[in-house]
Task: inverse folding
């Protein structure tokens, strides 16, 4: 389960405070030290942790907290609020186009879960918005990815546009024409990934962007890679105008560093999380609920 250790450690650090009638500066320093270690161990970005602890200390040492009847509870609330802020405060939704179709381009490194997530998102939109999506198979270097997307399409009863063509931008252009003809309200574009960011990949994604003008360019990142996920996000964001993050494999991520730092480091909102291999394993991301879950 995600955040298991972090949850346990934070709860322990804060429990020491709730039992006390009065809280001293030394108590707050002790708790801050524990919280700092817990966050670093969860693989949260160093600078994010530093800022976080600074804010907690400042607020916890504030007059209102010191004079309140229940300072321990107040401090827990401060930690809860700051964790929520760290993850972006409000839930963020997909951008919607004024005219159909709304276009969603999915990018990311190989194996992060792009193709699966295209299927999950199509399923989500069908369930929640009665959408009629069309999927475009743009991961042409991995024939298995095209088959995988076709299978997902069959499972969901959703059309998949694919073409035997080495020019992805052209495939996408034709796929969009098909969507116009069929009046699909969403187009989800799967793209190729690599083991690491390289110029060729970025050039291709830029060409697809120029043709598709996506309303949403979503980066799929693997939560299990921790802080590396935030670096990947920065890399992609330098070249593409990302609009948000989908954090996959949260079910296997015991630490939680990516979920906690990616917003603070990149400024990009986490819009969805994946927590399993099934097409139904996708959830909208709510920073406040996640913070409360971590604090138990
Ligand atoms: P792509 O190369 O980015 O298109 O990645 P795939 O969609 O092929 O996914 C790679 C592997 O990750 C597959 O085995 C998926 O079933 C698995 N996967 C994708 N999302 C999740 C998730 O949220 N949780 C888990 N446990 N596995 C996932």
Result:
């Amino acid at each position: 389960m995600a955040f298991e250790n972090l949850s346990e450690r934070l709860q322990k650090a804060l429990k020491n405070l709730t039992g006390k009638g009065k809280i001293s500066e030394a108590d707050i320093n002790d708790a801050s030290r524990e919280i700092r270690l817990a966050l670093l161990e969860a693989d949260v970005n160093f600078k994010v942790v530093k800022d976080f602890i600074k804010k907690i200390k400042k607020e916890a040492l504030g007059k209102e907290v010191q004079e309140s009847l229940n300072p321990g509870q107040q401090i827990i609330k401060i930690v809860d609020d700051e964790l929520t802020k760290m993850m972006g405060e409000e839930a963020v939704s997909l951008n919607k186009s004024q005219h159909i179709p709304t276009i969603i381009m999915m990018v990311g490194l190989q194996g992060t879960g792009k193709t699966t997530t295209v299927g999950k998102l199509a399923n989500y939109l069908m369930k929640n918005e009665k959408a009629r999506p069309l999927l475009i198979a743009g991961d042409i270097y991995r024939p298995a990815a095209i088959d995988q997307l076709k299978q997902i399409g069959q499972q969901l009863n959703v059309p998949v546009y694919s073409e035997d063509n080495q020019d992805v931008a052209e495939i996408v252009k034709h796929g969009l024409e098909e969507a116009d003809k069929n009046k699909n309200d969403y187009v989800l574009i799967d793209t190729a990934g690599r083991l690491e960011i390289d110029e060729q990949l970025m050039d291709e994604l830029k060409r697809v962007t120029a043709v598709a003008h996506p309303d949403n360019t979503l980066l799929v990142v693997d939560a299990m890679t921790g802080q590396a996920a935030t670096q990947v996000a920065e890399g992609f964001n330098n070249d593409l105008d990302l609009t948000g993050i989908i954090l996959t494999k949260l079910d296997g991520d015991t630490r939680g560093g990516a979920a906690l730092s990616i917003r603070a480091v990149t400024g990009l909102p986490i819009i969805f999380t994946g927590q399993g291999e099934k097409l139904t394993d996708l959830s909208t991301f709510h920073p406040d609920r996640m913070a409360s879950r971590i604090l138990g």
Remarks:
- The mean pLDDT is 93.
- The chain is about 55% helix and 15% strand.
- The longest helix spans residues 25-41.
- The beta strands are 102-107, 133-138, 160-161, 186-191, 216-222, 244-248, 270-274, 282-284.
